[in-house]
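Researcher: Structure for this, please.
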Amino acid sequence: MLKSGVAVIPMSMDWDEVKVLFPIKFDPASFAGEPAWEPFHPLAVSFVNELSKALLKDPTVREFPDVAAFAFFCRKANMIRLKENLDKESLFRLGRGLVFHVTPSNVPVNFAYSLVAGLLSGNVNIVRVPTKEFEQIRIISDAIRQLYDSPEFTDFLKRISLIRYDHQSQATSVLSALCDVRVIWGGDETIAEIRKSPLRPRSFDVTFADRYSFCLINADQFVEEKHPLEVAAKFYNDTYYFDQNACTSPHLVIWTGEDFNVEVSRKLFWENLHEVVLRKQYALQPLWAIDKLTAFYSQAIQSDGIRRLVSPDNLLWQVELKDLSADIDKFRSVAGYFAEYHAKSLAEIAPIFHSKYQTLAYYGFSKSELSFFMETFRPKGIDRMVPIGQTTDFSLIWDGYDFIRTLSRICEIR
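Model: Predicted structure, token format:
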């Protein structure tokens, strides 16, 4: 695959097994020859903004909040705001070159965010989208194709390729040998499998592995909440929207506060969440109901003193914990399965946060309180702290990586 540091494409590679969503023809070698640009190149910002406009004009986008959120992220005003952080540096940066993105199968719009991160950091991008034909992927791909005939973007669109192929294809090995950075979104097993395909000596991986997220609610504050149904609706978007499969979806809910306030708040919160689930007409698959039961039995065997609270149906499972074990992240399910625990203080929960922990969704805490927690206990995990309802909001800083700085290089000039 490699010869004298130069990638060699196997003659046996059958590119017919690769479905090209964009452009019309896929020539990986030509992509590898495109130059790197500086981060936030004016054409990149302009393209991302025009993509946003194209999506927002599409009436079908209203049916897909995740696509609408992506379009909102791509607005020029947001690009300018993001660029301000980089403008503070007195360093000259260029993209790494060719970035090969392998995106997850369970979050339809993730491929688009990964692509935009690659474009804004100055790179040429080949993106492997999920094999499942999500409608969101079609909508965004169509919007990109709409910009194909724009003279302004003739050269820029040479920096984008969207492809789809199955796991048996040699394409992963070929593209890995060509790229300067490989971005892998997926579980630990997916990462291990893709890493069997070697990279060039100076190339490297940026990996987004299995992560565990949780929610922290201050009951002393929530008990005074005037609009608990709105909070529950935001939590629904954090969890049920992706069937609790996203790495950002909370599985554990930790309550703090006085006993009475916790008791009242828990009842209020879960009743409102159940009401939201019913209103949204959430479709619970039979297999997921079995998964919940299996997860609970497994957790009960390996944990001390847990109990499932009574629920009118299978849409919401509350598993009350007597103790907060260090391996609580191993016990999770989908489609509305939540463990919950009443912590006497934040100090009590700090020891469990190992490197698998990603997002903390919170309610009733100030930024200064959360900063104090991180500075005091310095947990090995937790890369993001966001209010309930914002766990799926994309940022160019993700899982502790700064996309722009990671996917670009510094050229020292003395």
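Researcher: Any notable elements?
Model: The first strand starts at residue 2 and ends at 3. Residues 1-7 have pLDDT under 50 and may be disordered.
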